[in-house]
């Protein structure tokens, strides 16, 4: 994004360097306090539920378990207890309705 702004507004002209500096400074001010968009699984503490074998009336069977986020790096504190990864391993063909 920074490269696009500089290419559009600071590519040519007598004030190119000054405009480029202003764009970089404003961009840095805007991004300060933002967290990275990637939450590494291994840097978090997760609660793993016991695997459960599920057999439905329609003949579908699977093993189900969940990972629930317990603790994340401080910049991701807003996610604590708010992220659950649900896992299913099917033993039969199945169609899921989400």
Oligomer: single chain
How many whole angstroms does the radius of gyration measure? 24 Å
Overall structural domain count: 2
Mean pLDDT: 80
* Biggest sheet features: 4 strands, antiparallel
| N to C succession of SSEs | HHEEEE
Q: How many individual helices?
A: 2
The coarse silhouette is elongated
Q: What percent of residues adopt helix (DSSP H or I)?
A: 10-25%
Unreliable residue stretches:
none
How would you classify the helix and strand content by structural class? alpha+beta
Q: Care to count the β-strands?
A: 4
Strand content: 25-35%
Give the terminus-to-terminus CA distance: 34 Å
Brief digest:
The chain contains 2 helices and 4 strands.
Structure write-up:
The two termini are 34 Å apart. 1% of the residues are buried. Helix 1 (2-9) packs antiparallel against helix 2. The protein has helices spanning 2-9, 16-31, and strands at 45-48, 52-55, 61-71, 84-90. It contains two helices and four strands, in the order ααββββ. The chain has two domains: 2-31, no CATH class; 41-90, no CATH class. With 98 residues, the chain is α+β, with helices and mostly antiparallel strands. The chain is elongated. A hairpin with a 5-residue loop joins strand 2 (52-55) and strand 3. Strands 1, 2, 3 and 4 form a four-stranded antiparallel sheet that branches.
């Amino acid at each position: 994004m920074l490269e696009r702004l500089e290419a559009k507004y600071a590519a040519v002209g007598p004030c190119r360097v000054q405009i480029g500096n202003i764009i970089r400074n404003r961009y840095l001010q805007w991004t300060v306090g933002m967290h990275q968009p990637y939450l590494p699984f291994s840097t978090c503490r997760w609660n793993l539920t016991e695997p459960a074998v599920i057999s439905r009336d329609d003949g579908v069977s699977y093993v189900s378990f969940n990972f629930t986020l317990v603790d994340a790096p401080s910049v991701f504190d807003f996610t604590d207890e708010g992220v659950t990864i649900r896992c299913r391993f099917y033993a039969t063909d199945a169609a899921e309705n989400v």
